[in-house]
Amino acid sequence: MSMDGVKPLLSLHNINMTFGGIKALKNVSFEVLPGEVHCLAGENGSGKSTLIKIITGVYRPEAGAVIEYDGQTYTHMSPVTAQAGGIQVIWQDLALFPEMTVAENIAFQTVIGRWPRFVNYRRMREIATKALNRLGVALDVDTPLKEYSIAQRQIVAIARALVGEAKLVFMDEPTASLTQSETDHLIEIVRSLSASGVAVVFVSHRLAEVLEISNRLTVLRDGALVGVYPVEGMTQSRVTELMTGKNFDQHVRAKVMEGEPAIVEVKNLSRPGQFENISFTVRRGETLGITGLLGAGRTELALSLFGMLKPRSGTVLLDGKPVRFSSNRDAIKAGVAYLSEDRLSLGLIQPQSIADNLAIASLDRIKSGGLLSDERKRRLVGRWVADLGVKIGRQSDAVSTLSGGNQQRIAIAKWLATDPKLLILDAPTVGVDVGARAGIFEIVAKLAESGLAIILISDEVPEVYFNADRVLHMAQGEMAGWFDPRSCTLQEIEAAVYA
């Protein structure tokens, strides 16, 4: 029995898991009540995803584990048992099929079975439309998923999880790519699910959401249970302290950079339909923050600076010389590096090794006699892993074995190894927890101190306010305003962005 005599829907005891000699979970206990919204909190690498995969049957825990679910007791779950029992997961990477339609993505499990059968597309459309209506969202269910934005794909993943008789739904960073209004709507959906008796386990690094929506909070740190806490009376700073064991004192880092030489100058850069007449300068050692709502044109601007998109008009100067990149290869050779907001599919090659991912943009630097040198690659990787404090097992391990925060450090290291003049960081903390975020911004600060010019793009205003020297606000593809963190408040920028 648990709170107020209510028997848990899910109860785990003595959960242990080891990967490559690293203890991912250490004697963890965890429970969820029927209809409860429960937050599972912890830094990347704390064991949250491993615990979810044990519950859903992806991983088998070590001997001695006890899993009680919906009145049944197991030593381990299987994917079939978990799904048949109404356990659904919305993974952070969405696990969708871009070439398939919205309807096929949402309802494909309804046509999966042991024997071949004809596909009832009309029924699939009905199921998909019903699920989307439950979310209050209108999408063309016959359109291929690849036609939709990341935010809309997230909604499709949520709709897919709601198909069927779910009793327990895990949401792993479900709001990472959503706007504030979409996030607010999702929170209402979660409350509706809870009211109907569906238990929801909410994993989010946006602590304000956690405190708004959850009843209780389970905190993991380094694979061990820190404790289970009522959310009532909890503060963001207290949750951060529980997750990390540290206090984080945020302060404005902005400094005067006007005397430094210009590294990149952008003059009246335009790409119709995406951004218009954008002008700015980034100087040596300066961090320029660019913020705004989704759809403001920030990523399209970054891709134009990196040679992935071609601007219609305007000029870009690098070290005072005009440049026109026909591809990202030209940009890399010129000294421009771009860290994509979509780390999982664009920033890193998940099945490949840590070493190969880090070295892939620097192959010319590790050649010896015209061939790639394993020794040079090993030294290159060792240097950047040490410099950025990346926690890895072996260089040959797949990068997918790392936590989100450590994957992001590898992604940053990949570009630093090219020795860039300008580093563009596009939403570098998406899916990264508060402790790892602090570490990433410490890296950014040190890179700026070393003379690197940095463009920091984020839709989270506090990130640019505390970590940039100047902040450009973009709205609907245009320059909406400039802010100096030394002479304005965080609330002033937020008011302008979210107005």
From TrEMBL:
Transmembrane segments: none annotated. The keyword Cell membrane applies. InterPro entries: AAA+_ATPase, ABC_carbohydrate_import_ATPase, ABC_transporter-like_ATP-bd, ABC_transporter-like_CS, P-loop_NTPase. GO terms for molecular function: ATP binding; ATP hydrolysis activity. It comes from the Bacteria. PANTHER family: CARBOHYDRATE TRANSPORT ATP-BINDING PROTEIN MG119-RELATED (PTHR43790), XYLOSE IMPORT ATP-BINDING PROTEIN XYLG (PTHR43790:SF1). This is Lipase. It comes from Phyllobacterium zundukense.
